[in-house]
Each structure stands twice: as structure tokens, then as C-alpha cells.
Amino acid sequence: MPTLDSLNFCNHFANLTSFYYSKITPTPLPNANLLHLNHSAAALINLATDQTECNIADWLCGNAIPASAEPVAALYAGHQFGHFVSQLGDGRAILLGGIEGEHGYWELQLKGAGPTPYSRNSDGRAVLRSSIREYLGSEAMHGLGIPTTRALSLVGSSLPVYRETVETAAVIMRMSPSFIRFGSFEVFFYRGQPDAIRTLADYVIRHHYPELNACKDKYPRFLQAVVVATAKLIAQWQAVGFAHGVMNTDNMSILGLTLDYGPFGFLDHYDPGFICNHSDQGGRYAFDQQPDVAAWNLTRLAQALTPLMSVEDAKAALDVYPAVFTSAYIDLMCAKLGLTADKTRVPLIMQLLDILQENRVDYTIFMRRLCDFNSAADALNARLRDLFADRAAFDSWAAIYRTQLNTAQNDDHARAIAMRRVNPKYILRNYLAENAIVAARDHNDMSEINNLMHILQQPYDEHPGMEAYAAAPPDWAQHISVSCSS
Ligand code: AMP
Ligand code: MG
Fold first, then answer.
1. How far is the CA of 91 from the centre of ligand 1 (A)?
2. Residue having the nearest C-alpha atom to atom 7 of ligand 1
3. For 151-160, what is the mean pLDDT?
């Protein structure tokens, strides 16, 4: 098995013209120490994880660069909170290159490895707190089966970093087939450089949508493929209760992956207006806004691609969004309810969400307990019912649910098994991340990160002895504030 320095990088992004990036050397990180290594991500690139002969932390934070890597920071623009910013780019991310192997193509990117030409007066660093959140958050999403970038490693440091208070720096190594964003196209649209848009679109199609390469109308099809991937992604976010927090177009993956974990949050009690990012005062990126925001962001991408297609073609590609999103969401919610997918179930789903909201019922706990719903006519289902202040509201919903189950050739036991595969027991609640951060940062104790990685990578399993991690948040957790500052 290769060590990081002996990995064979192929750098197809860096092989594009330097229009798209700047070559950059990571800034050394003092006292780098490996806090956590994700063995399941390491396996994707066949990376040896027992590297005792070298200081693996140095390779994983950019202090040492593999010989075949070509570090670059990518250029992009983006609509941030609705306003166009003409030049953003990787201000603190540095792409080393890609590894082609039996598990596909994976690019490796350092996050927090020092300033780049796109850092705009910022320090190019990431604090340990936000690095732990991204490390755990991306692996939690992967465990849930939701498309996402991955995280290979977490390296800590003694380097002070100044945010609201003084914190210390950390570097994560992220992995993704591509880190290209909607904003990677927008930058060239606003610069009036259609050739650069075409070359980038050809590149993305060639490597990531190869089935479209030979199509005559490959650009509209490409746009439509991104629309479909994004619609399905957002349906998964809504079904699991994930709020991204900063859905700017520069944080939207061209592959429909969850990308750039900042002030994200999972719902505790079901609250459609949930705003996880305390900097988002207007609630632009509130949980229930995400489907519309994604559509708006896709329109920005479509606009950036108009040099490659007619406006009619762009509109036609965008038009599939509502139907794809709705049908994906209905499918996911029906599966969570143990019912066959059918749009006639929508009133049942909406009524459930209404009573969960009105009773401030924990979404994940309810759905997990629902797996054990007893469909017998006289069953009280007390473990579910007791979650509601308004018991009658639950009873009347349960009566309708029971009817739909019983017309669907229900077998409670088989249904429970199937439902446990789609209703996670464990999600990365804010308070769990906070406990892991405090233990790691203040006590140099990685055991919470370890425990969370273990359960979140298999969130549908029971994990006997770990039930405490499935609990609703304690009172102190209401005061955790998560902002863009990271
Ligand atoms: P984000 O909201 O984290 O996705 O970042 C938005 C933009 O700001 C991106 O271009 C980032 O690279 C850049 N950025 C965020 N934090 C930093 C930082 N500490 N140093 C340099 N650039 C940053
Ligand atoms: Mg970003």
C-alpha cells in the first residue's frame, strides 16, 4: 500500500490552463499533529494508514508535498446571500491533485493550509472547531447515504488563529471527485469569457458526466444533469433534516454533492423555519427555504452557461427541477413511513410534519420510533404518543397512518426492519459536535470524535451501549451559536 508521498497523482484539473487556478505552496503548519484519520476514506485511495516511518501529519497538512502533486487554488465567483461577488476562489483550500484507482477518481484538497491569491485579507486558515465540524459532518452525511465530499484526516496545530477569540489552526484533507462549483462557471460569465466556460464545461462533462460526451446537445443535457443531481440532493437534505447554512452559489457542487460545511445543522425538533447559521439574520437559508434556494442557484448556473446554449434550452433544463425534487422527496418520505411511494400520501406526510412542528417533537427520534409502530387497531403506541403534548393530534394521524399501512399488505416486523434502514438512529446533533470539540480542544481528548465517527458512519445501526448519542439535546445546547466565522 502506498504512503501519501508515494501516491501517484494525476492532475487533470491542474492540466487545464492557468485561467482556472493559481499554483500555490501550502504554508507550513507549526507542531502539526494527527488528531484523527478516517480509515474508510483512506481505503478509497488505498492509502497505508500505519505509516510509522514518516510523520504522516506533515503529509496531511501540507508541510510535505507528494512529489507527483501539483498544488493549486481554484478560481471561482459566486452569489453570496443573493449578491454577486466577482472573485472568490479557494482562499484557504489547496488542491493537491487526483488519485485514480479501483475505487474511482478522488481529488485530495487541503483546507486551512494557508493563504492563496484568493484569500482577500483573510489568513487562509481554519480553526480546530470548524475543522472538527466539517470532519464529522461530511462523514455523517456519507454514513446517511447522502452525496458529499469526504474527509480523510484532521491535523491540529499550536498556531494561534484570530476569530472572535484566539483559537488554534487545524487542517483537514478533503476528498471529492471534483471541487468545481456553480461559481466556477459564473466567474467567466461575468468576465465575458465564453471560451473559458466551454473549456470548463467540456472538462467537467469529459470527466464527470462522460455519458453526455458524445451527445450533440451535450451542454443542455449537462445543465439538466446538474439540475437533477441537485434536486435529488436537496430532497435528501429535507428528508433527513439537514440545513446547510450557507447555500451561496460558490458552495454548490457541480456534481450535486454536499460541499463546504460551515454553520450547518441537523434539526432536533421539527422546525421548518430552522436557521442554523446565526449570521443569516433574514433566514435566507432557513431549512424550508433550501429547495427554492437551490432552484435559484441553479438559475444562476444556467445563466452562466447561456453562452453554450439557447435561453430556451436553459429554461427547459431548469424546468425539470420541481418535479424531480418533489418526486424524490415523496419517495424518501414514503420509505421513511414504511409505505410504498405514491403521491396520494402527500396529505399524510404534510399532516405529520404539521403535528411534529406544533408539538416540537424531535424529528429523528420520532421517525426512529415510528419503525416500531404497532398497526393493530387497539395499539396505543405509547412511546410515540408520549412525544406529543397534544396526544389527540397523534391519535388522529396514527389512525390514518394505520389505514394506509393496512391497505398496503403490512407486516409490522418486516416493515420495521426496512424502516430502520432509512430512519437513522444517530445524527450529528450540534451538541454532540460541541462535546467533541470541547474534549479535543480543551482536553486533548479525541475519544468523542472517535465515538461519533464510529456511530455516524453506521447511523442506521443500533450500536448497543451508545444510545446516549441518540438523545435529544440537553437544555444547555439551546445556547450553542454557530456562525460563518470559521
Ligand atoms: P465559505 O463561506 O467558507 O464557503 O467562504 C467564502 C469565501 O471566503 C471562499 O472564497 C473562501 O475561500 C473564503 N474564505 C473563508 N474563510 C477564509 C479564510 N480564513 N482565509 C481565506 N479565505 C477564506
Ligand atoms: Mg465555500
1. 5
2. 88
3. 98
Whole-number Å distance, alpha carbon 80 to ligand 2 midpoint, is 10
Site to substitute for ligand 1 among 84, 118, 483, most atoms within 8 A of C-beta: 118
Q: What is the pLDDT of residue 48?
A: 85
Confidence category of residue 51, pLDDT binned at 50, 70, 90: low
Ligand 1 atom with the smallest distance to the CA of 260 is 4
Counting from 1 in the atom list of ligand 1, the atom nearest the Cα of 115 is 21
Distance 260 CA to ligand 1 centre (A): 10
Could you give the residue ranges of the DSSP H alpha helices within 115-156? Answer: 128-144
Q: How far is CA 240 from CA 164, 270, 271, 326, 459, in A?
A: 32, 11, 13, 15, 12
- The per-residue pLDDT for range 77-109, each reduced to its tens digit, is 999 999 999 999 999 999 999 999 999 999 999
Neighbours of 19 (CB within 10 A): 14
Active-site positions? Answer: 250
What is the DSSP secondary-structure string of 452-470? HHHHHTSTTS--TT-GGGG
Q: Which residues contact 430 (CB under 8 A, 6 or more apart)?
A: 265, 266, 268, 276, 473, 477, 480, 482
Residue nearest atom 5 in ligand 1 by C-alpha distance: 91
User: Which pLDDT band, with edges at 50, 70 and 90, does 307 fall under?
Assistant: very high
Half-sphere exposure of residue 422, counting CA atoms within 13 Å on the CB side?
Answer: 17
* pTM > 0.90: yes
Q: How confident is the model at residue 2 (pLDDT cuts 50, 70, 90)?
A: confident
Q: Indicate which atom in ligand 1 lies nearest the CA of residue 484.
A: 2
User: CA 304, 235, 106, 263 torsion: positive or negative?
Assistant: positive
Closest CA to 321 of 427, 230, 197: 230
Q: How many alpha carbons lie under 13 Å from residue 265 in its C-beta half-sphere?
A: 28
Report the candidate in 36, 90, 85, 32 with the shortest Cα–Cα distance to residue 61: 32
| Residue 52, pLDDT above cutoff 70 | no
Angle formed by the axes of helices 290-304 and 218-240, nearest 10°:
160
Quick check: 87 and 187 in contact, CB under 8 A? Answer: yes
